[in-house]
Structure formats: structure tokens, C-alpha cells
Amino acid sequence: MAVFVLVHGSWHEGTAWKEVIRELEARGNKAFAPTAAGYGKGADKNVTHAKCVQSLVEFIVKNSLTDFILVGHSFGGTFISKVAEAVPERIKRLVFQNGFVVRDGYNVMDESPPATAALFERMANESPDKAFLLPFPVWRDAFINDGDLETTKRTYALLSPEPLQPSKDKLDLKKFYSLDIPKSYINATEDIALPPGEWGWHPRMSNRLGLYRLVQMPGSHEVMFTNPSGLAEKIIEAGRD
Amino acid sequence: MAVFVLVHGSWHEGTAWKEVIRELEARGNKAFAPTAAGYGKGADKNVTHAKCVQSLVEFIVKNSLTDFILVGHSFGGTFISKVAEAVPERIKRLVFQNGFVVRDGYNVMDESPPATAALFERMANESPDKAFLLPFPVWRDAFINDGDLETTKRTYALLSPEPLQPSKDKLDLKKFYSLDIPKSYINATEDIALPPGEWGWHPRMSNRLGLYRLVQMPGSHEVMFTNPSGLAEKIIEAGRD
Amino acid sequence: MAVFVLVHGSWHEGTAWKEVIRELEARGNKAFAPTAAGYGKGADKNVTHAKCVQSLVEFIVKNSLTDFILVGHSFGGTFISKVAEAVPERIKRLVFQNGFVVRDGYNVMDESPPATAALFERMANESPDKAFLLPFPVWRDAFINDGDLETTKRTYALLSPEPLQPSKDKLDLKKFYSLDIPKSYINATEDIALPPGEWGWHPRMSNRLGLYRLVQMPGSHEVMFTNPSGLAEKIIEAGRD
Questions:
Q1: What's the DSSP call for residue A102?
Q2: Which residue of C138, C141, C197 is in closest CB contact with A203?
Q3: ipTM above 0.85, yes or no
Q4: For residue range C176-204, what is the model confidence (pLDDT) as tens digits?
Q5: Contact partners of A by the rule of 3+ C-beta pairs under 8 A?
Q6: A184: which chain C residues are within 8 Å (Cβ-Cβ)?
Q7: pTM above 0.80, yes or no
């Protein structure tokens, strides 16, 4: 039996992992999915990246979690990198699921295609709380491209506005890059939430991990919704000794 | 029920889609596969790219086709780009199946590896009608690499000489790149008709579409022959709302 | 019925192909897997690349093998390139299975990421016989990333020290690049023994073959251990006419 802590990405919250947790637990594991500060409907969007990370560390400490596999999806990759700096002794392995692996001193905006970064910044600045939602056509074609229309609409309704500031905070990752925690990268082969190639997830992000275990599966950025059973199996494979 | 218009690429004609049409129609859809002017055995090879496109537009108008999904395979990607400029209001979505997405002002020769472009031009110029056939070893190993020898030979016999001129015509695609018709790209993961990487189909061609839905499947450039059922399913997935 | 000669890579010896041979022969084929000079436990590690190749050519000649498909895995790609120069008339097709395709005048060190090459050279130089073993964490996460821990440990015990010199010998491959023997490349899609991208196997190595047949399968660099049945099927597909 393994213990997993699953960290969501932009626009998502912990409940997005619901079906994946069911699949992990049906296979004899235990899984937790906290929601970072500033995320979810109705949350106060006035947060920094550090505050998000702090809320996740507090969840881990409060629940006395140790010897767990820490999984970060998408933007959640930045959260688990900083959580690993805070409580490395508690973590057995880090798993990035199409997750951001940011260079030391950079932010997520730097790591995103300039046109996308500019669009997101403009959308956030048009909102009073500097938070913004992903446009539906982008969700449908570039995020959940393996989902049918019903799934696409049902899951779009689960999303909530993304606070801009965490994407703008430059991240000091010197300690992260010196940690000797084993690492894995799960890549869904049809994930185009970042455009494949120069700005893509894999191998651009994954290779930055140095020695890592690659695990791939068919599917989009949102396999947590379109294939939770397959994703659970890959998380187990990525996390095993 | 959806309506599909399937546009062939170089050396092929409309009948190449025969088995795919059967599979699409067995799933409750309707599909058409016109042959572009200048294509097919015995056709007059003295055509321009514009004339090919015109013949396809005439087919669509004559058959009163509207609200259809327009699919272009390989060189057919250039045809559907220009057909979309001519009759955008009739098209629900564009689907490129390992199709050329040419930059505005360029031609297919510009988009092909220089050695290949030079070989094709030389072969065409050795022929009285400036048309040329793909050499069998290239067909076997780089186009239909997932086919057994029997399939490879049977389908090679279906090919006909490719007129050179449409590959040399520079294409004005300004309007195409301004259209807001949704787009999808189907990539067969073992397609090496264009060499993967710098000169490859995906993500080089696909990313040029801007926002698009990626759909992938195992197989070669010629899945229409080696896996028509699988291709039909992917065309449906690429074309759905 | 086809005849296969299977050539191992670094740290491996001929017996690594045992299960693949069983699968090939269960499908009506015949297969041989010689061990190159200098390879295997207890072998004299004082060899050059030329001596390794000579030992493989002698095996082929002694066993009167002709009209066979020559398969090279990993470093074995360099061996089959030179064997093909020595006895081209005996070979029906060359199959590189995530194999090195070295540029004329270069060596395997030149073709490897500089940090890896430096690590291997340092490890070899610390050993009296200039031979070195792959560290277990690298084997587990970057070579056999699709294997469970039991398989990973069992197969690690089969490895033996790699002589450094063959990786340092510059290879004259002018004749190889002029041979018209058909070629195939088998790529396992999760193989990260070379980091994907700039230093990866495919398409960097494969495209150097010019015209080749691409065959892909899921799995790591060590599918000979984790999926011998699947690999046997892909070797047959890669090798067929």
C-alpha cells in the first residue's frame, strides 16, 4: 500500500481528483487531494505562490503524512517543487503529471508561450480580483481534447478562476534542484495544453529533472477526468520503488 | 449523424477512401470523397493548384453540401485550406490528417526536405507530362511502413502519377489563417512520410493551426489502407463538437 | 521463416536475448545471439571496437549464416553498422532497436550527452580494467522504467562491466552510409536511456539512416526483458520484406 498526495493545477481544486482517488484506493492505496489557498469557487483570490505552498505544507503536517508520493498536475508541478523543499524528509518520490518544472529564478509566465502568457495576463487584469477563467474553446480543443462534448461541458463547470499572482512569482528553486528525492514524469501523449515542441511539456520540462522515470499514457491534459482509471495505474507505476 | 468530405493527397484519388467511407457510414455518418482535377489514372495532368481547388469546390456546391467536416490527408491539407477560404460558411470543422499546413506565401516544395523536393522535381521533369510516381521502396518503408508486403503491393497499384505544378504553386493563405472555423489535427505516430523532427508533420504543421484539437493514432501515413476502421474512429473524434 | 542475428548493447551479452529468441522461434523463425568479444562476466575487457566487430563477423561466418536480418540494440547499433560493411552480401535488412547510428568519423562518446560521457569515462578510469557498470538508480529509472522492482533487480544482476575503449574508438562509416541494404528502426516510446530531444534516439539517430522503416512500441530501453513477446513481434514487423 502506498500513500499519495495529489496536487491540482490551474483552475482546478482538490475535488478534481475524486475519481482518481477512488481508483487508487480501489487498488489498495490511500490518497489525499488538498486544495491550495486561493483555489476553488468562492476562495479569496488574493494569494501568492508562497501562500499556496504554505497551505499545502500545513495540510501535510496537520495530517501527519510521511513516506508519501507527491504528485503535481500542470501548475501543481510548481507547488510540489516548493513543498519538496519544505518537507523533503516526508517524501518518497515526486511525480510530475504534465507538470511545470520551472527553472530556478523563473516563473510560470516565463515558461509559457508568450502569446498565451499575454492573453492570461490581459484576462486577469480585466477582472477586479485579478483571476481569470480558461475560455471554453481552449478547454475543449487544447485541454480535454479526448473528451466528448458532454464530459467537456460537465468538467468545464467544475473550473474556477485562476489567481494571476502565483504565475507571476519568480521561484527560487535552488534547493529543489539539489534534492535527491527520486522523480518521475507522467506524460499524456495527446496533451497540447502547452504546444508540443519548443514550448511543450515533454521532453522540455521532464529533462530538467535530470535522472527521472518516464511514464506515458494516451490522452489529453485532463486524463483525470477522461481516464481516471488509466491515470491511477500510471500514477502507481510512476510512484513505485 | 455527421457529414464528412474527405480529400486525398498526392498519388491518391478519391477511391482511396473507400474503406474509410464504409467504416464512417457503418457508424451512421455520410461521407464523400471527390477526386481533385489532375488526379487519378488517365487524368489530364496539366493542372494548377487553383484548378484542383476549384474542382473540389464545384463538387461541394453541386452536391449542396453544408455543415460538413472537411478532412484533408497529406497534400490534401493544402486543398482543404483553400476550399475553406472559398466556402467557409459550409464547413463545420477542418481536420488535417497528417496534412500539409503551408505558411502563407509558400508552396509544398518549400515545406518539404530539400533533397526530397529536388528528387520529385527531377522525376517530374523526366516525364513528358511533368507527373511522377513515388518509388516503391519509399512507399514500402516510409509511407506504408505498417503494412505487410501484400497490402503494400496491392495499394501501390492504386497510385497514379502526381502532377508537379500544384506543389510548386505559391499559396496565398492570408484568409485561411484568419478563419475562425474550428480545426483538428490527426497524427499517426509512425508516419515518416515527412521525416520526424525539423521537417515533420507534428508538431511543425499542427502548431501552425493555432488553437486545434490533437488526435493521435498508431500507424503510418497510409492508415486509410492499413487501419481504415481505426482511422474512421479518429476522424469522428476529430470532427465531433 | 526468417533468420535473425541479434546483437546486444552495453553491459549486456547474448543471453539477454533469451526470451526474445524463444518468442521469435515460437513464431517459426530462427534466431542467434552472439556475445561480442570483451562482453559478459569474466571476459577480458581489453578490446577495441574493431575486435568486437571481428568476433561477431567470425560468428556469422562460422555458422554459415546468410540472408538474415541483423538486429542491433543500443550500442549494438554500432556493431551491426560495421558488420554490415564486412559482410553486406549476407544481410537482408538491418534493424536498429533504439540503436546508435553514429556519424562517419565519430564515436559513441561524441553521440552521448557530454555529462553522461564524462561520468562513464570517470567511472571506467577508476577501474583497473577500464570497465564500468551502470549505477542501479540509472538502470531503474532511465533504462528499465517500465519494469517492476523485482524485474529491475533480477535483470540488473545480469549486467556486466562495459569496456570503455569501444565507446572511444572513432568509427569509419563511409561504406556503411553507401550500402543499399534496407533498414528499419524500432523505437520504444518510453526509452529515455538517451534523453529525448536534442540527444535522443528517435528521430536523431533514425533519420541518419536516410530511407528507413519506422516501427514503434510502448516501453523502455529494456523491452527485451519487460516485453520480450511484444519486441519479438516488432522485430518481425521491422524485418519483413
A1: P
A2: C197
A3: yes
A4: 999 999 999 999 999 999 999 999 999 99
A5: B, C
A6: 141
A7: yes
